[in-house]
Amino acid sequence: MPFLLKPIVLFVVAVTLLRITGRRSLAQMTIPQTVMIISIGAIIVEPFADKDVLKTVTAAAIYIGLLLIFEFFEFYAPGFEKIAVGKVMDIIHEGNFLRKNLKKLKLTESEVMTRVRQEGIPKLTYIEKGTLEPNGEFGFKLKRGAEPLRVQDMEYILNKILLEKQIIDEPIQLVEELEKQQL
């Protein structure tokens, strides 16, 4: 195989293999998955482990160029991103796991529940929709009433009650006070 064709073929093969293994970010990978990624990297570099520095630099430049081309097509070519990176996949709907999708993604309920707890969500039933993003991150949309109380919400509630009952004459400005304290 010609030298300049090797990095192109190896790049496409590596991306394809990594897509097959799933879409977890490095931080979410298990030890065997991390070893596999490092091994693929070593295997891809192996054909270029040459004493000729120029060939090694050329191969590295081709890899970087291919990555830039890949990212360009992801951004500008409709449909390419879905093929190359994947799409958002629902994993929870109305507080229930979508087991068929979990199986496709090679995720266990236990792994998802770990992320749910890390996000501070006490119960699966609080989740309206849970997704796995193409970058391996989880996204959760909470059901109405399960969202955390924000300062703006508290300000609205206090003003609604206290002004209506004429306990205070002027609205409470919690958000403005917090902004002043942060400066």
The whole-angstrom Rg is: 25 Å
* Average pLDDT metric: 79
Strand order of the largest sheet: 2-1-3-4
Number of strands: 4
Q: Level of helix content?
A: 55-70%
Hey, roughly how much beta strand do the residues contain?
5-15%
Assembly annotation: single chain
Category from helices, strands and their pairing: alpha+beta
- How is the biggest beta sheet arranged? 4 strands, antiparallel
Structural domains: how many: 3
The helix tally amounts to 8
Shape: elongated
- Uncertain runs: none
C-alpha end-to-end distance? 62 Å
The H-and-E topology, N to C, reads as: HHHHEEHHEEHH
Written overview of the protein:
This protein is α+β, with helices and mostly antiparallel strands. It folds into three domains: 5-84, no CATH class; 89-142, bsu07140 like domains (CRO Repressor, 2-Layer Sandwich), CATH 3.30.240; 151-182, no CATH class. The protein is built from eight helices and four strands. The chain has helices at 5-21, 31-45, 53-76, 80-84, 99-105, 109-118, 151-164, 174-182; strands at residues 89-93, 96-97, 127-132, 138-142. A four-stranded antiparallel beta sheet has the order 2-1-3-4. Strand 1 and strand 2 (96-97) form a beta hairpin. The longest helix has 24 residues, at 53-76. The chain is elongated and about 85 Å long. The termini are far apart.
